[in-house]
Design brief:
The chain is an alpha+beta fold. It is built from two helices and six strands, in the order βαβαββββ.
Length: about 100
């Protein structure tokens, strides 16, 4: 685990990603999260296991390139986004949509 997130594992995971592809992956017990771009796979695994009390089997990450945006004559870049697909052990699940 990197020393950047050693004390604050809750800062690793930003939010769950709800897309069509991520929703299909839920059937395979895979959950997609937007994570801090500096987080390593052991950080992500430890954060998910601690926050949701589940056992993680595998973590796949992807770091797509930043998108350029324009507002009038000003050009800039969007925030850095890193996606992590977390595969849980058989019998574990995360409640993404709580019933109200």
């Amino acid at each position: 685990m990197t020393e950047l997130f050693e004390s604050r594992l809750a800062d690793v995971i930003r939010r769950p990603l709800i897309t069509e592809k991520a929703t299909k992956a839920l059937e395979l017990n895979q959950y997609t999260f937007e994570v801090d771009h500096r987080a390593a796979k052991p950080d992500i695994k430890a954060a998910v296991e601690k926050m949701f009390d589940v056992r993680v089997v595998g973590v796949s990450t992807m770091n797509p390139p930043r998108k350029t945006r324009r507002v009038g004559r000003f050009s800039g870049k969007r925030a850095q986004v890193k996606k992590a697909v977390v595969r849980l052990a058989e019998g574990n699940s995360i409640q993404l949509f709580p019933e109200s």
